[in-house]
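Re: your question from the hallway

Yes, I did run it. Sequences:
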Amino acid sequence: MSVVASGPKSAPAGGTRTEKSAGGGAAGVEIAGFPQILFTRTFGDPDMLFVPLLDAARESFNTIERLCERGEKKESAVLLSGMQLASSLLRDSSFSLVARGLAHDNGYTVDLEQGTLLAQTRLFAVVSRRTSFFRVEITGKLNENLFSVRNPVQNTVIMQVEEERLRQPNFFSATLAQECLRTQMEQERLSRIEESIGAQSSQEIHLVLTVAGARVPLILRQSEEGRSWDIVDGRGQERIATLAPEFESPLGSVIQSIKERFEQK
Amino acid sequence: MKPTDAQMATLHKKERREERFALPFEIEVAGIDGEGEAFHIKVETKNVSLWGCGFVSPIELRKDDIVAIHVAAPEGPGAMERPPIRFQVVRAERDERGWAIGAWKMESDDAWGIELGKIAQPQGGDSTQRKGGADENEMDESEDE
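Structure:
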């Protein structure tokens, strides 16, 4: 079993590796129960290491079952499989053993007993002129093909990703980073809406309109007297106009219709 | 300054040299071979040190393989079963009886269960006796005869 040689972006033996992995980042790979960390200075970026490590960890995980079927005790099979995984990583010259307790740019934890892989990394993305650099955790079971992407700060699941997508070239740095930032922005927008709903007792209708190619959040907010409707720019909560009086009645009908639907439900 | 256990466990091979003792401990070496099959072999050490050991393996082991070494418990009442300890193969050379292996302990747990200096005279070697300019294979003499 060779971990790095099986990856989609891995280089053949020789000098090519250095060029390909020059920007690959450092990482620590922890195998649960193993006394030391396997460290790579150049191969740790998830675009380079996640898939090969997943494949190698899965092979070791399957080895446990095979060894147990042949009479090995589970505890011993886990120990031997972890050693095999570590050996396969060490066979690549970019990996070495380091003491536990050091912080790394990218962290991977393989738990062969639980059958899980956890990757901790930072993603960088630019969406709609917003630039973000944030930490995520990608976690999943070795015998399944669905992985959760989590925000470790808020302890929330950002999204779930199928393994097929994780195997796409540059998925982490390009696709996942963008999707995470978009999801985060959407969650923030919804959070603002909830906050404004909580602060207002009058009726509101939230819209997202495409104006000159840009998606603009808008709010129709009923005045305190309950007659006119203000048009509010959702980005800055700024009142920009009042709804024309001839639209108040049709809007009231729409709201009444929705209320009745809810009451029936 | 004496290195800590954590430092010793991860010392680069060129820095390793410590007193070694020609003690034949009966050990069981376990691992997974190139075919993906588990092996458990019983051999005797040729020499040991606090952090390393040398033995001849009847099956092929390669440099950087990691093996679990379990020292056979002495017989008699009160004998304690010792847990397996992971060692990294730092030297593997073919010889007429198999593969001469030098292995380095990866964890701080005591592998031998006895103070080596109390039962044998050291054969030599400590960090100050390290020869300069030797390659990695040469250094591993400390885990061999």
